[in-house]
Design goal:
The chain has a single domain, classed as Alpha-Beta Plaits (2-Layer Sandwich), CATH 3.30.70. About 40% of the residues lie in helices and about 30% in strands. The chain has four helices and four strands; from the N terminus they run βααββαβα.
């Protein structure tokens, strides 16, 4: 599984319908799981972003499908980071010339 960190900002539509945000979060988790993924956590945050989520998906293609579907709903805009564990990072560094 690949790990992704999602930084999300509410759109105007998303903030107008903020009372339904918890339900939308649950639906997003269900969609991610239906794609073979696992949600590690979703956090409401104060600052530049409104939410931060950490999830796992089988591959970049599944991540792209999830993100496009999430964005198409129009409630949040995402910035996504692909994350590597310390072990993965160490293995990458060990392969450097």
């Amino acid at each position: 599984m690949q790990t992704y960190i999602l930084l999300m900002k509410l759109t105007e539509q998303g903030i107008k319908d903020i009372k339904n945000a918890p339900k939308r979060m649950e639906l997003a988790v269900q969609a991610l799981e239906a794609m073979g993924g696992k949600m590690i956590g979703i956090y409401s945050v104060i600052g530049e972003y409104d939410y931060v989520a950490i999830g796992e998906l089988p591959n970049d293609e599944a991540a792209m499908r999830f993100l496009l579907g999430l964005g198409a709903l129009g409630n949040v805009r995402t910035t996504t980071l692909k994350a590597f564990t310390r072990e993965e990072f160490s293995a990458i560094v060990q392969k450097m010339p």
